C-alpha cells in the first residue's frame, strides 16, 4: 500500500476518501447497522478504488509531474451519484462515483453477449427489462481542470454556493466554475514582479463554509489573510490580516520556519478558524485579528530539538488539523504515530497512538505521554525515543459523530467512540 | 542586482546594514536568552553551512519546493546577519536570486547550461570549504526527478558572501586550465584571407588579456543568469 497523502469524509460521513502517493483514491463506505452483526456497528469497508492521477511529463520544462494526490474535497450530494475533486500538483479532476445494481436485458438489436443481431432476422419487438445485478461502483472523470497552475497546488476548497471552487498553489489562487474547465479566474497573486524578492508563499486556502464571498489563505510567514471577493475582482488586498506578534523570549533562527502555517480550517459555524503551525494549533475569532483566542500546544517538547529537526528536514513537515462536527474539539497529528485531541469545553487534551502493535482492535486506546524531564515514568516515552519517521500528517473527523480517521504513513486507522 | 557582477555602492550597503541591524538587533545581544541558550556544539557557522547545503540541494531539484526554498533562504539570511554584523554585509536585505533561478529553471532547460553550472557550483563548494560540512542528507527534500537536472545559479553564490565575487575572478582561470586550446591556437584554423594573419591577431588578444577576462566574466555571468543563450564556451584566446 502506498503512503496516504489525504483523508476526507463526505458531507454525511457515510463515505471516507483517501488519496495516496501513487495517485490512487480509495473510498470507504460505512456499513448500515445490522442487528444480526452487532459488532460491525457501522464499520467502514472499501467501496471504490480508482486511479485518479498518473505521473505526467512536462516536455516543455523537462519536468516530471508527481501523481501524488495532494487533496480531496467532496461536493455536496445532489443526486444518487457522489462527486469529489481530487488534485495533484498541477491538475484538478472532478470524479463521479455512481452505483450500478441493475442490468438491462432483452435488447432488440443485440444479443445477450453484446453481438449485434442481423436486423432482417428481427420479427418482433420487446421491451427490455431491468434485472438486478451485483453492485458495481464506477468512478468516471467528469471534468479535468488543467494548465492553470505554474506552481504546486496545495489546496482546493468547494464554495458554499456549490458552483465554484478555489485552487491554490505557492503563489496564486484561482477560482473555477465546476462546469467550466477551459477558464479560471485568478483572484490572488502574490508573485513579486522580481522573483528575487520572493520571501513568502501561500501554504493553504479555504472558502468560508457559509459566506460564499469570503476566503482565507495562510502563508509561510505565519500570517492569514481573509479576502472578500465582493470588494474587488483581484483579492490581492486583504480585508483582514491575522498575525500573532512574535514572543521575543522564544525567538530563534527557526522562528519563521516554525511559524509557517501548514493548514487553515474554518469551524463549521464559520465563526472561528484554526491554524496549524509546527508546534501548535491556534484558534482565531474572525473578528479579532491581533491574536488567537486559544493556543494549543501540540508537542512543545520539540522546541529544544529544533536544530536536529531542521537538519533532518522534519521541521518542514506539514501537519493538518480538523474540527469535530460541533466545533467543540480539535484533532491534529504528531510524531511516533501520536495524534492529539483537544476538548475546547473542558480544556482537556489527550495524546493517543495509531499503531497495531500497541492496541488491539476494539480495545480502548491508552493515553500516551511524552516525558521531557529526567525521570521517565513507566509507560512514558522520552523525546529522544520518538520515531520521527512515523508522522501523522492527515486526519479527519466525521461531520456529525465521534468517528475519526487517522492516516499513519500507509495505514488508515478509524476510531470510534466506545458505546457502553 | 546580479547581472554583470556589479557590486552595490558601499553607502547603500551601510544603510541597509543599519536597517537590518535595527530590526534584528537582538541577534547581537549576548545577554539574550535565545543567544545564550544556543549550545556550543551548534554554532552559527555550522548552521550556516547546513543551510547553504540545504539551499544547494533544494535548487538542484528539477522543480524546487518553493516553500522549502523560501524558508531556508530566509533562515540563512538570519544566520548570516547574526554572524557578520559589522563586516560588509553581503546583500542580506537584497533578497537572493535563488527563487529567480527557480523561475528560470521552470522557464527553460538547457542541458549544456546545466552541466556547466553544475560543475561551477561544485567547484565553488569545494573552494569554500563546504566539503568539511556534514554530508547532504540523502533523503531530504523532494525526490530528485531530474532529467538533465537544471542546477542553481548565482543566487546561491550571492549568499555565500562577497568573497564569491573575488572567487570567480580568480577561479575562472583555474576552471578552464585543463582545456586544451592548442587546437585553436594552431595556424591551421587561422583565417586565410589577405591582410589577416593569425599571429598578429593572437598578440592583441594576449595584450588585452585582462579586459578579455572582464568580458568573459560578464559573458559567463550573463549565461549563468540565463539572459543569454549559451552559444559556445568562452574562449580560448588567452
TrEMBL record, chain A:
Upper taxonomic lineage: Eukaryota, Metazoa, Chordata, Craniata, Vertebrata
Keyword Repeat carried by entry: yes
Keywords, sorted A to Z: Repeat, WD repeat
Record has Repeat as a keyword: yes
Listed PROSITE patterns: PR55_1 (PS01024), PR55_2 (PS01025)
GO cellular component, one term: protein phosphatase type 2A complex
Single biological process term from Gene Ontology: regulation of chromosome segregation
Family: Belongs to the phosphatase 2A regulatory subunit B family.
Superkingdom of the source species: Eukaryota
Gene3D superfamilies hit by this protein: YVTN repeat-like/Quinoprotein amine dehydrogenase (2.130.10.10)
Protein name: Serine/threonine-protein phosphatase 2A 55 kDa regulatory subunit B
GO MF assignments: enzyme-substrate adaptor activity; protein phosphatase regulator activity
TrEMBL record, chain B:
Pfam families: SERTA (PF06031)
InterPro entries: E2F-SERTA_domain_protein (IPR052262), SERTA_dom (IPR009263)
GO BP, one annotated term: positive regulation of transcription by RNA polymerase II
SERTA domain span: 40-87
GO cellular component: nucleus; sarcoplasm
Acidic residues composition-biased segments: 201-213
Region (Disordered): 1-21, 190-213
Descriptive protein name: SERTA domain containing 1
Lineage: Eukaryota, Metazoa, Chordata, Craniata, Vertebrata
Gene: SERTAD1
Amino acid at each position: 500500500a502506498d503512503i496516504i497523502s489525504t483523508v476526507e469524509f463526505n458531507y454525511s460521513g457515510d463515505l471516507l476518501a483517501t488519496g495516496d502517493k501513487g495517485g490512487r483514491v480509495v473510498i470507504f463506505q460505512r456499513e448500515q447497522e445490522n442487528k444480526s452483526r452487532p459488532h460491525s456497528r457501522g464499520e467502514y469497508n472499501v467501496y471504490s478504488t480508482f486511479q485518479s492521477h498518473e505521473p505526467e511529463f512536462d516536455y516543455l520544462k523537462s519536468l516530471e509531474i508527481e501523481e501524488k494526490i495532494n487533496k480531496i474535497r467532496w461536493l455536496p450530494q445532489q443526486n444518487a451519484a457522489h462527486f469529489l475533486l481530487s488534485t495533484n500538483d498541477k491538475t484538478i479532476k472532478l470524479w463521479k462515483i455512481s452505483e450500478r445494481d441493475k442490468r438491462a436485458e432483452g435488447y432488440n438489436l443485440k444479443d445477450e453477449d453484446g453481438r449485434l443481431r442481423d436486423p432482417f432476422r428481427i420479427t418482433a419487438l420487446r421491451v427490455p427489462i431491468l434485472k438486478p445485478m451485483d453492485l458495481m461502483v464506477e468512478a468516471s472523470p467528469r471534468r479535468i481542470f488543467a494548465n492553470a497552475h505554474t506552481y504546486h497546488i496545495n489546496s482546493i476548497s468547494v464554495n458554499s454556493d456549490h458552483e465554484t471552487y478555489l485552487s491554490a498553489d505557492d503563489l496564486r489562487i484561482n477560482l473555477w466554475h465546476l462546469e467550466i474547465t477551459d477558464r479560471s479566474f485568478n483572484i490572488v497573486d502574490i508573485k513579486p514582479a522580481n522573483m528575487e524578492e520572493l520571501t513568502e508563499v501561500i501554504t493553504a486556502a479555504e472558502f468560508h463554509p457559509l459566506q460564499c464571498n469570503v476566503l482565507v489563505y495562510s502563508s509561510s510567514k505565519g500570517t492569514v489573510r481573509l479576502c472578500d471577493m465582493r470588494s474587488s475582482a483581484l483579492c490581492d488586498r486583504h480585508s483582514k490580516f491575522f498575525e500573532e506578534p512574535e514572543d521575543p523570549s522564544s525567538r530563534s533562527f527557526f522562528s519563521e520556519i516554525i511559524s509557517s502555517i501548514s493548514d487553515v480550517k474554518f469551524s463549521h459555524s464559520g465563526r472561528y478558524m484554526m491554524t496549524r503551525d509546527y508546534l501548535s494549533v491556534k484558534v482565531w475569532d474572525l473578528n479579532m485579528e491581533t491574536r488567537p483566542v486559544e493556543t494549543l500546544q501540540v508537542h512543545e517538547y520539540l522546541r529544544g530539538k529544533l536544530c536536529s529537526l531542521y537538519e533532518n528536514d522534519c521541521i518542514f513537515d506539514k501537519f493538518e488539523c480538523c474540527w469535530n462536527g460541533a466545533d467543540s474539539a480539535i484533532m491534529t497529528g504528531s510524531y511516533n504515530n501520536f495524534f492529539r485531541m483537544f476538548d475546547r469545553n473542558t480544556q482537556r487534551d489527550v495524546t493517543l497512538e495509531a499503531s497495531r502493535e500497541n492496541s488491539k482492535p476494539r480495545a480502548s486506546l491508552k493515553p500516551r505521554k511524552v516525558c521531557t524531564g529526567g525521570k521517565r515514568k513507566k509507560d512514558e516515552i522520552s523525546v529522544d525515543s520518538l520515531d520521527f519517521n512515523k508522522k501523522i500528517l492527515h486526519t479527519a473527523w466525521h461531520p456529525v459523530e465521534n468517528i475519526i480517521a487517522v492516516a499513519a504513513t500507509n495505514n488508515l486507522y478509524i476510531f470510534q467512540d466506545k458505546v457502553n | 542586482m546580479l547581472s554583470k557582477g556589479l557590486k552595490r555602492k558601499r553607502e547603500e550597503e551601510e544603510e541597509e546594514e543599519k536597517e537590518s541591524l535595527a530590526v534584528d538587533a537582538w541577534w547581537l545581544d549576548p545577554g539574550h536568552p535565545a543567544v545564550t541558550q544556543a549550545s556550543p556544539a551548534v554554532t552559527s557557522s555550522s548552521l550556516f553551512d547546513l543551510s547553504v547545503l540545504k539551499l544547494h540541494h533544494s535548487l538542484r531539484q528539477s522543480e524546487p519546493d518553493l516553500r522549502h526554498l523560501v524558508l531556508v533562504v530566509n533562515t540563512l539570511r538570519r544566520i548570516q546577519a547574526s554572524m557578520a554584523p559589522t563586516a560588509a554585509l553581503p546583500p542580506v536585505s537584497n533578497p537572493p536570486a535563488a527563487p529567480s533561478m527557480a523561475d528560470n529553471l521552470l522557464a527553460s532547460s538547457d542541458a549544456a547550461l546545466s552541466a556547466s553550472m553544475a560543475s561551477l557550483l561544485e567547484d565553488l563548494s569545494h573552494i569554500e570549504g563546504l566539503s568539511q560540512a556534514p554530508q547532504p542528507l540523502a533523503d531530504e527534500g523532494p525526490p530528485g526527478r531530474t532529467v538533465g537536472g537544471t542546477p542553481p545559479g548565482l543566487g546561491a553564490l550571492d549568499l555565500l558572501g562577497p568573497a564569491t565575487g573575488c572567487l570567480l575572478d580568480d577561479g575562472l582561470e583555474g576552471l578552464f586550465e585543463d582545456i586544451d586550446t592548442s587546437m585553436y591556437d594552431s595556424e591551421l584554423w587561422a583565417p586565410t584571407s589577405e591582410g589577416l594573419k593569425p599571429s598578429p591577431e593572437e598578440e592583441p588578444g594576449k595584450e588585452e588579456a585582462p579586459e578579455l577576462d572582464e568580458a568573459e566574466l560578464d559573458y559567463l555571468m550573463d549565461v549563468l543568469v540565463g539572459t543569454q543563450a549559451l552559444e559556445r564556451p568562452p574562449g580560448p584566446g588567452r
